[in-house]
Design a protein that fits this description.
With about 270 residues, the chain is of the alpha+beta class. It folds into three domains: about 55 residues, no CATH class; about 80 residues, Ku70, Chain: A, Domain 2 (Beta Barrel); about 80 residues, no CATH class. The protein is built from five helices and eleven strands. Strands 7-9-10-11-8 form a five-stranded antiparallel beta sheet. Strands 4-3-5-6 form a four-stranded antiparallel beta sheet. A two-stranded antiparallel sheet has the order 1-2. A hairpin with a 6-residue loop joins strand 1 and strand 2. It is extended and about 75 Å long. The chain starts with a strand and ends in a 19-residue tail after the last helix. About 10% of the residues are buried.
């Protein structure tokens, strides 16, 4: 989905801090400027080519290929002009097996561009791979720069950056300018010193997190379910209304992970 309505949450009911937000997609997929379609070569007229369906059948019911297609495929943009498949494929970047270095950029590049990341390791089947990798990693380790690259290794052209992360050479898939969505949502925030200070104190009250302790709560619950254990479910039968200031003052200190510890607040009769 492009947007998802969720709550940023800390602590447990009834003293949790919740901030309702909408998660909005920041990057678009890179779309080809020319949306080629597969065309039936036997169903041509002076004006158009019939398209092929997913099951490799011609969509034209009057064509012999309507019940099954075995001939050579053609590619078309508008069903009026068609090319052999190899002609279209030849237009794609030849860098299917290369990360072509385009230049350098600060290794502190904007993180909002990152779309994915991958380890990059030497191909040990190639002579001298480790030696050449040593120069590359050594150079990047001692530099403030990362390498900007382009590649068509996945079948679609991408921009990337080669950088050192935790001692490893990593390839980041990077969004192009045309893929970054502008911020369109309009809202107004309180920027008073009191609000900023209270927010700062709330964040300071939260303990530092160790990534190594992160586990999938969903998978843990599945394991409990399989083992016949009871799953802790927080039941909120009444919404406790608080001002934003009171909510952040409470700092979400209530903690519980057992069903019997969850406090049920019954609605007024």
């Amino acid at each position: 989905m492009v947007t998802t309505k969720v709550n940023i949450k800390y602590g447990q009911f009834p003293n949790e801090v919740t901030v309702p937000v909408v998660v909005v997609k920041m990057q678009d997929d890179l779309k080809a400027a020319y949306p080629f379609k597969t065309a039936c070569p036997d169903c041509a007229t002076d004006e158009s080519y019939s398209a092929l369906g997913r099951l490799t059948i011609c969509k034209n019911p009057n064509c012999d290929n309507h019940n099954g297609f075995t001939g050579e495929e053609l590619k078309t943009i508008d069903y009026k002009t068609a090319w052999k498949k190899e002609k279209v494929e030849a237009c794609k970047s030849a860098q299917t097996k290369a990360l072509q270095v385009l230049g350098t950029k600060s290794k502190d590049f904007p993180r909002h561009r990152i779309m994915g990341c991958y380890y990059v390791v030497p191909n040990l089947k190639e002579d001298g791979a480790e030696d050449r990798m040593s120069y590359l990693v050594g150079g990047l380790n001692s530099s403030e720069s990362a390498l900007v690259v382009s590649s068509n290794r996945t079948g679609s052209e991408k921009m990337g950056m080669l950088a050192i992360e935790d001692g490893n050479l990593v390839l980041f898939d990077i969004a192009l300018d045309e893929q970054i969505r502008p911020m369109k949502e309009q809202f107004k925030l309180d920027t008073s010193e009191e609000t900023i200070q209270l927010g700062k104190e709330w964040i300071a009250s939260i303990p530092e997190f160790d990534f190594a302790t992160m586990e999938s709560q969903t998978n843990k619950n599945y394991a409990k379910l399989i083992n016949g254990e009871e799953i802790a479910v927080e039941v909120k039968e009444k919404t406790v209304k608080k001002s934003a200031k009171d909510m952040f003052l409470s700092k979400g200190k209530v903690k519980t992970d057992k069903v019997k510890d969850v406090k049920k607040v019954k609605p007024d009769e």
